[in-house]
Amino acid sequence: MRWITYLLIPLALVAFVTGCSGGTVAPPTSSIAVPVTSAAAPTATPVPTATPVPTATPVPTATPVPTVAPAPTATPVPTATPTTAPAPTAVPSGSGAEILYLSGGRLQALNPRSKALRTLADGVRAFAATPDGQRLALVRGLNSATELWLINRDGSGLTQLTRNDRAESEPNWAPDGQSLVYSAAATAPPFPPDYQSWSLWCATAEVRLYAMGNQSEVTLGAGCQPAYGPDGRRILFASPPTSVSPGFAFPGALNAIRMVNRQGQNGWSVARSDAGGDLEALVVYAPAWAPTGGQLAYQRFLGYQALVDITLTELSSSYERKPVPLAVGAGWFLPPLYRPDGRQLALVGYNFGDARGFSGYDIWSVAILDLERPSQTQLPSATLDLGATEFTALSGATAAAWSPDGGMLALVLPAGWRPGLSSMEPAFPDPGPAELWLWRPGTPPDTKLAEQLDFGSPLLWLP
């Protein structure tokens, strides 16, 4: 009877995950749809508006012994030369919150209440705001010619920061707004991303810090996807894969989520891909800090299993290596997005090897995790206890951003999206223009704010 058990487990998993990804990493002969979901998903309820109760910062019993990184070298950057932004509109006094997005490469700022729209700069690929929302770091240019620029919230003072032969990307500000970290690689990061393209790109990347005071760059280490900690002293990033995966011809295994100080020193691995057991993975990537700084979340790519390219979203203490699985998903995921109070997490995923043969927007989705309710799910090898429960999910979203009060999200959805569309039938197979919608998790998105967004446009909701 044991062979019957071995047959039933993968069949049960396939039924459990119907509708999500198969794998381009090692395609099966079957094309069975396989979604992966958390157990015991609750019925939709509105996002709580009660006063947030932040998660207590863990107090470590023992601080890991760090390994000292090689002393970084500072590279002077030529004096920044201001240039003029394309006809910005000044921010009216008391104008309130704005949602930033890209349309035709132009950085747009939209007030969701008054619908006032401003253009801040053109030729933009990515952007990040200081915590007070008054200055923006921009990535401008094409391919290997992308550089970092600075602009004020009102559209004034467009200034180039970096000039080098690398492609800058993924800027992230220090809490005091006096420095920022970013990736510098041979080419711009791939979009849409997947396991192979990300591994090849991150293998050429390094993490740098730009100091606003003396206009200098410091290399912190090899890797990508840096994130400044809320305390302003610690920086996370994904180290590049260093080993060739079995069956592949590129380095796509054995890396870590590294933590260093602002000088690139006292580094240690807060998460490793070779964790062993059910958590053994090809790579770990996309780290994000919890609002308190006591915890972090990141993605763990397990690879192709039972018709699915499986990714675990994990949480760990930022003081000791204590991984806790939060959710199981199919495909490749962007960095987790904490709600401002830290009680929920938004996950945007790209199901790059979808077994149904879908493409375009149809293999994107966003899910909301409730971090205060544990659950269980089934992996091919074992039952897995999760530290969260999937609250709700929505197909077709390529980007999300929490409102400053955490009550709703802005979403990038395909042009022509409407509530009630089936996720089991292809509707938006092409990566065409997108729309900006408001979503209060627990109910369908009901307010469309803008059209003609770029495919893959990032989002930022500023106070």
Strand order of the largest sheet: 1-12-11-10-9
Overall morphology: globular
The major sheet is characterized as: 5 strands, antiparallel
- Count of discrete alpha- or pi-helical segments spanning 4 or more residues: 2
Rg, Cα atoms, Å? 21 Å
CATH architecture annotation name of one domain: 6 Propeller
Q: Give the % helix.
A: under 10%
Round the mean pLDDT to the nearest integer and report it.
83
What class would the helix/strand composition place it in? mainly beta
Task: Indicate the proportion of strand residues.
Answer: 35-45%
Flag low-confidence runs: 1-95
Separation of termini?
Answer: 61 Å
CATH C-level name of one domain: Mainly Beta
Number of beta-strand segments = 34
Describe this structure in words.
The chain has 463 residues and is mainly beta. The chain has 2 helices and 34 strands. β13 and β14 form a beta hairpin. The longest helix is centred in the N-terminal third of the chain and has 15 residues, at 2-16. The chain starts with a helix and ends with a strand.
